[in-house]
Predict the structure.
Amino acid sequence: MKKKGRVPVRKVKPAPVGSPGVKIAPSILAADFGNLASEIKSVEEGGADLLHIDVMDGHFVPNITVGVPVVASIRGKTSLPLDVHLMVDSPELFIKPFAEAGSDYLTIHVEIRSRLERLIDTIHELGVKVGLAINPGTSIVRLEPFLKEIDIALLMTVNPGFGGQTLIPEVIPKVRELREKKERKGLATSIEVDGGVNSETASQLISAGADILVVGTDVFAAKNRKEAIRILRGHKPKARR
Ligand code: DX5
Ligand code: ZN
């Protein structure tokens, strides 16, 4: 892996997630990688709040996607906060390169064997915000010891590894439960949901307490990305003329 110098870009302070109004994070896994720059431009101009980048190592999940060089290239093409989702067995090997590549958020999974406290501290020490993810079959209890330290709690709404799957409805009560816990503790941790989120499932997730919606297929399969993002936020579709 050739070490690439950090690409100087106009650094826009990421919007403090958790501010009023749900945030939309298009997942580039569903984008046309042959035209990635224009795909990213279309969602940035379409009103996206963050850009979700799925990193898969072929071990933690049965798929391989993108790595550090792609994140570094994307950093030079957008000022959207980069929300990097690490579905990898040994994130400790890659946290520093992904931080240097320009990630604004780095999310790791509780299901890995590495020492989570150490990883959370390392990410913060690199000046990057931390996300902690749980798979559909994992209880939110596994997140509780870390809720104060993390910026994003990511609840997978599909089993990770592929885009275009159907949302697992059993996860929605977990969103509500986590929201109640964070409110009881007075925490600002943002609740993010990822997988099978679309114009049909978005409103249930928002009312359950989701702050950030990761959306791949429903945004990148749409011709009008701006309208797709508006509808996910709960706005009525524009009347066709
Ligand atoms: C799946 C990824 C998701 C996925 C979402 O493991 O973490 O981010 O790309 O794509 P859709 O919205 O198509 O389910
Ligand atoms: Zn993801």
